[in-house]
């Protein structure tokens, strides 16, 4: 298939690009390189478009290439940034998504995959959420991603011929990740450990997160390409949660470092507990996360070329 990956120079997007290419797809990337990195992919310049997805030239590319599928990963992904810059968050996450949907319908894209987030749930009453849990975002980021989902539903109603799949990610981590975004805490903690600085934890450290390794997320996206249901929504995570303090202990064990923790007040917009029910995607795709948190951290240790400090 001829596939466009927006945000394909980013942490998650580049992992999707690598897997797509290994499986023989013809892959194109569109990325404004504000948060992505050109070194994250090895790609010919004629298949890499370094531009904002809202720029005027984007339509020319859709007209010329006639993509079979669009995997829309480009986004502003920081909750804390969205709290301070809600208009910029909306411009990227809402306007950018609408632009991609509109061009995809106009130029007869067969498959559209939208990267969403468990942040759409806010702080749910029950810690385990499924696809039927009513969204109640508590940050501009969660709201903008939920709005993108609603636009996916609307465009599906306007043109049911384009198959749309929404993937709600839990906290994705792994190599090439920067210290911003929903699961950037893993990289942020590693940077602190490597420089012998105190680890900053917002809150009491008892808050829980569902951390899923980036390669497992990439595999879910590639499997979604083959789905031909007119419209589908799945959660992508480990289906397990750990506390932030447990994460730090696991990192200390894998990276063999000692640490100190500096506790700060909780940040506005941060959720208390998060764990996603993955039974729906397991049943639909026979997809399961293969990477435990300890195995994922070992892979990050190898990627960083970590030497004991």
Automatic annotation (TrEMBL):
| Any single Pfam family the record assigns to this protein | Epimerase
Q: What domain of life?
A: Bacteria
All copies of the NAD-dependent epimerase/dehydratase domain together span 3-228
Cross-referenced Gene3D superfamilies: NAD(P)-binding Rossmann-like Domain, UDP-galactose 4-epimerase, domain 1
Family, according to the entry, reads as follows: Belongs to the NAD(P)-dependent epimerase/dehydratase family.
The protein's name in its UniProt record: NAD-dependent epimerase/dehydratase family protein
Species per Swiss-Prot/TrEMBL record: Mangrovibacillus cuniculi
């Amino acid at each position: 298939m001829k596939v466009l990956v927006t945000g394909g120079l980013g942490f998650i997007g580049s992992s999707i690009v690598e897997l797509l290419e290994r499986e023989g797809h013809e892959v194109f990337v569109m990325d404004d390189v504000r948060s992505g990195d050109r070194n994250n992919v090895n790609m010919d310049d004629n298949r890499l478009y370094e531009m904002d997805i809202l720029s005027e030239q984007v339509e020319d590319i859709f007209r010329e290439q006639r993509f079979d599928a669009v995997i829309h990963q480009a986004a502003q992904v920081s909750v804390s940034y969205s709290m301070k810059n809600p208009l910029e968050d909306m411009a990227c996450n809402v306007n950018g998504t609408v632009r991609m949907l509109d061009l995809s319908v106009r130029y007869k894209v067969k498959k559209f995959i939208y990267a969403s987030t468990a942040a759409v749930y806010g702080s749910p009453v029950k810690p385990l959420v499924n696809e039927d849990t009513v969204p109640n975002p508590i940050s501009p980021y969660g709201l903008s991603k939920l709005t993108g989902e609603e636009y996916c539903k609307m465009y599906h109603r306007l043109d049911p011929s384009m198959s749309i799949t929404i993937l709600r990610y839990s906290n994705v981590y792994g190599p090439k990740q920067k210290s911003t975004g929903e699961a950037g805490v893993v990289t942020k903690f590693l940077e602190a450990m490597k420089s012998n600085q105190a680890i900053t934890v917002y809150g009491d450290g008892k808050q829980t997160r569902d951390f899923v390794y980036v390669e497992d997320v990439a595999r879910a996206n590639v499997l979604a390409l083959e789905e031909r249901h007119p419209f589908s929504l799945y959660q992508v995570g480990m289906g397990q949660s750990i506390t932030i303090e447990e994460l730090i202990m696991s990192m200390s064990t894998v990276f063999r470092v000692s640490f100190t923790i500096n506790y700060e007040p909780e940040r506005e917009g941060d959720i208390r507990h998060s764990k996603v029910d993955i039974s729906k995607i397991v049943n639909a795709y026979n997809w399961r996360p293969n990477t435990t948190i300890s195995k994922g951290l070992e892979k990050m240790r190898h990627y960083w070329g970590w030497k004991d400090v």
